[in-house]
Amino acid sequence: MASEARSGRPLSPKFSETIENNLFMRKVIPSPTRSRNSPKVNEDNIRRSLEEISREIKDIEDFITVTENIIRSERERDRELYARERRRKADEKRGKISDEDRIIINNKENKAPTAIKQSPVLSRKNSQKSPSFKINSYKVKKAKPGSPKFLKSKLYFRNGKIGCADAEQSSTSNIESTHALIKHILKYENEKPLVSLESVEKVLSQEPEEQVGRAIENGHASESNANEKGSLDLPDLVPSPARTNEEGINGNNAKYIDLEFSGSPEVTNEDPQQQARKDSLQNRIIDKTENVEEEMNTQEIENLDNEEQKFVREQVHHLVRRFTARTNKMRSRIEMPPTPSSSSSPSPPPPHQSIEALKIDTLDTKVSTRNIFQADNQSIRTPGKFVCPTFCGGGRNDDVLDPQGKVYIYWLCVVSLSFLYNAWVIPLRSSFPFQTEENQDIWLALDTCADLIYLFDVLFFKHRVMYLFEGFWVKDRKLTRKNYMRKLQFKLDIISMIPLDLLYLKYGRQAVYFRFPRLLKIQTFWEVFKLIDRVMASPHFVRVAKTMTYMLYMIHLTACAYYAYSAYQGLGTNRWVFSGKGHPYVRCFAFATKTATSIGKNPKPEKEGELVFMTSAWLMGVFVFALLIGQIRDIISTATRTQSEYRQLEDETLEYMRRQNLPINLQRRVKGWFKFTWDQQRTLDESHILDSLPANLKTDIALSVHIQTLSKVQLFADCEDALLRELVLKLRSVTFLAGDYVCRKGEVGKEMYIIKLGQVQVMGGPNNDEVLATLCEGSVFGEISLLAINGAEGNRRTADVRSRGFSNLFVLSKSDLNEAIVYYPNAQAILKKRARSLMRKNAAREREEARRNASREADVVIGNPTRPNTPPKLLKTVIQALPEESPAAMLLTRGSKRNKKRRETLTDTEESKNEDSLRGSKNEMIAQQTKCTVENERRALSPDLLSSIEDELKNQNKLINLTDSEKALIMSTNDPNEHQSSTSNANLPKN
Ligand SMILES: Nc1ncnc2c1ncn2[C@@H]1O[C@@H]2COP(=O)(O)O[C@H]2[C@H]1O
């Protein structure tokens, strides 16, 4: 917008165009529907429109500033150009131009040919429509690259700068090209005039005034005639013998206005007639140009100032005013009262102040909406005329006090101390003989200090405290003062300062009771406790302290009264009154304490007056102590309520489990859960704590509490903050014990999780005992099944997730997630991307596992053929052949009961023996063969035995050592010969 306005010459039409074209201006003009806002309009919509309006007003403000700057700078430039031009023309007229200057002017003239082009006003018009004037051109073919001819260029004049048109399109440096081109022009200018006389005549015959008028009206209409591109070009300056002036007009360049600006003294070969003609033409040109130019310039500049500019400015200011008023009205209607905690932030003024703010003179050109809003806060600038204009800063509003600010609270503490001084000392000095002639001055000084504090409080502090009015903090000093003066507190403060002490003059300084009005400052004392209660980390202490102060003060008053009564009756006149022995205050205070608390024995009252005193003291004691004890109980119970609730719940749960006879282990886990949850949160259910707060505050609190965890969640870091705000209140906190499964593979997923504390393990593998990943604080899991990427089947958990130690997780339900995420496509995309990548990873892992299993199975088939389970036929035959009860048969059929391995070895040996015996005396070869066969066949039944024998024989290459009992067993079954042979057989190496 700014650039448009800057480049546009006819500022007024451009201005109005800009305004009309701008969206914000269209919005600014209030439509009937807009102004007729129904009260039922949704608050959100109002808010949004309010924000929009604020933005628009800001835009208008910028718009005004920019356009005003443009107007100013344009005007200055116009004036400057105009003055320069006039000076130059005057010089020219007087023929004072040096030759050198003439050449430069010549070229300058060429930048904006004819008188028309010299008009700054017109130049701007031109530059608006066509940004450049092409004033020269080269049309030489086959020129060297880089040479001015090659450029075939035209000089242009744009925004006060000269340049070479073609250089812009080529990569050549514009400055270099322009320089070269100018040099070239100057070189040939001596040989041939730049502009022919005929061209000049032609232009002049077209009535320049007309051209000017048209140019102004139509924005270069005259130039368009000459050049469709809107440029005013001179004929080719390259000296070409074939080329004549006529060609310049009628040939290719016929559309150009050819002007000859000569008069160069170097052109000496002209005849005097021609010279005279040239001079007269030149003069005509200059005269006409000057007249037109002068007229135009003056008119333009004045018009600029007087009409459009003013109109536009006024219009815009008017709109700004209207919109500011509307905005303030709307704001006053919808703005929520700030919470006490936000009071320190700059707050808007009460509505009536806003209205006053609107009285600001918006006609000031520098006014801005920002200023208006600032003015809202400073609407009243007149100095205060009421209380202490000098000290109180009059009507300034920059030093109001925040009622919850530190300065004010500290000051209230000081005032409270002086109140307490008065409250304790006035009864004390009135009853006890503590004010003597010697210390009177000290008391007087202390009294004066306390009084000064009271005075300062009223003069400098109380009336500056800002207050809430219809939801707005009122910060105006005049209003805060009025507010203070309206209150009862002001009246009490004034009464408490009444200098009744002056009566000392009449009644003497002993009459301290004249200071009793000072006790009316008690409101400040209450206020300070109230404020400290709010700002202290543990308000229970403040409450207990307050109650204790009351109690002690009652006892103090009783002590004073007791002493006064005793003094009245006469010290030590009976057993009840104060005896006068010891420190009077300490004794009387002890008496009063015993009476009030009914602890300890006090002397019995004897007189009626004493009885009345005691009765009232007892009553007060009962009342005050009942109150005190009740309060302290409340305070303590409030402080420990959450803990006792937790204890109660834990006890009930454990009791229930005991009654149900649940396993001890389970009970222990539940106990662990209670302990861990309490340690972590100091409450069992956080969610209900903030129930009573509005949603925005709840969100803020939840964000502050969980920010540490949530800041680690990548999902939220990558997405808008709004998503986090939306979800934070929906997060539920859950605790898992060590080894607990958070979710199981194949379950339907209904929640996703964010790890708040601890670690979880994602389990996988064929037996779900392989840890695929360990996730820690800030990690998100359980989202795959929620997103249901794989259609209906996709809502199943893809892995087991187990808590590694104790872990605390945020749970987000599927519905909550879906509800929120639907508006955040970014987050959706991130979650889906992550889910897909996890799924791909899992799929790849599962494929790999399947492949490994398959290859393992294949190995078994090839490498380990299974042996038949049925005993071989030969063995069956042998067993049948053996006597049933023989140890060999028993061994073969049942095996040993003692040492299996040894027995089997034995059986093996025996069997060999039996085989031998079976074969009898048949040749050894056959027996051996048989034995081997049997052995081979037995291997099927007891591979361990056989292999162990084999191993022993192979590896150690020694005889198998049978135990004696085994040998005996074998020998007892078979004859000695057989035994021999069997032993030898048994000892045979297998191979
Ligand atoms: N290989 C893995 N690495 C990390 N996390 C995983 C992996 N596989 C599954 N998960 C997470 O474990 C979750 C189990 O439940 P979901 O399938 O809903 O979502 C799953 C993922 O968030």
UniProtKB/TrEMBL annotation:
It is a multi-pass membrane protein. It is found in: Membrane. One of its GO terms (cellular component) is intracellular cyclic nucleotide activated cation channel complex. Pfam families: cNMP_binding, Ion_trans. Residues 26-46, 218-251, 263-285, 326-355, 886-922 are annotated as: Disordered. PROSITE patterns: CNMP_BINDING_1, CNMP_BINDING_2, CNMP_BINDING_3. Its main location: membrane. Residues 265-275 have a biased composition (Polar residues). One of its GO terms (molecular function) is protein-containing complex binding. The keyword Ion transport applies. Keywords: Ion channel, Ion transport, Ligand-gated ion channel, Membrane, Transmembrane, Transmembrane helix, Transport. Residues 276-285, 904-922 have a biased composition (Basic and acidic residues). PANTHER family: CYCLIC NUCLEOTIDE-GATED CATION CHANNEL SUBUNIT A, CYCLIC NUCLEOTIDE-GATED ION CHANNEL SUBUNIT B, ISOFORM A. This is Cyclic nucleotide-binding domain-containing protein. It comes from Hermetia illucens.
